[in-house]
Write a structure and sequence with these properties.
The protein is α/β, with parallel strands linked by helices and 134 residues long. It has one domain: Acetylglutamate kinase-like (Carbamate kinase). A four-stranded mixed sheet has the order 1-5-6-4. Helix 1 packs parallel to helix 3.
Length: 134
């Protein structure tokens, strides 16, 4: 479990799963996750949040919003704002999304209240969530 990004430097290279948490107020945990992935050469990030899927629109506002199981970075970035702002309500930080796309990092969004779905994802099974990739 990483709570300070500097601790990643002390993590053994054979570790398969790293869990990281927020570090400082005012910075995006999504960006920190992408930065850690870049630092260790990982090509996947799992974003545990309070949603089951990324949707075509905010389902709290738009009743026609539909869940997305698989989406490219290009299409995903059309759904979110261009800039990150503390308190932004977006499935993934837009700046972190650009970084992940540039480094060819896949991001999977899974509801953190349902860790069975994380287990399925980690075991290459069908899961409830959204994959965002190149």
């Amino acid at each position: 479990m990483i709570t300070n990004p500097d601790e990643i430097l002390d993590t053994p290279r054979d570790i398969k799963v790293i869990i990281a948490a927020g570090y400082r107020p005012g910075s995006s945990t999504d960006m920190r996750a992408v930065q850690i992935a870049k630092l260790i050469g990982a090509n996947k990030v799992v974003n545990l949040s309070n949603i089951d899927y990324v949707y075509t629109a905010d389902p709290k506002i738009d009743s026609t919003a539909t869940p997305i199981k698989d989406i490219t970075w290009t299409e995903f970035r059309k759904l979110i704002p261009d800039e990150w702002d503390p308190g932004l309500s977006s499935p993934f930080d837009p700046v972190a999304a650009r970084e992940a796309e540039a480094k060819n990092i896949e991001v999977t969004c899974i509801n953190g209240d349902n860790l069975v779905e994380l287990h399925k994802y980690l075991n290459n099974e069908s899961f409830t969530g959204t994959k965002i990739h190149a």
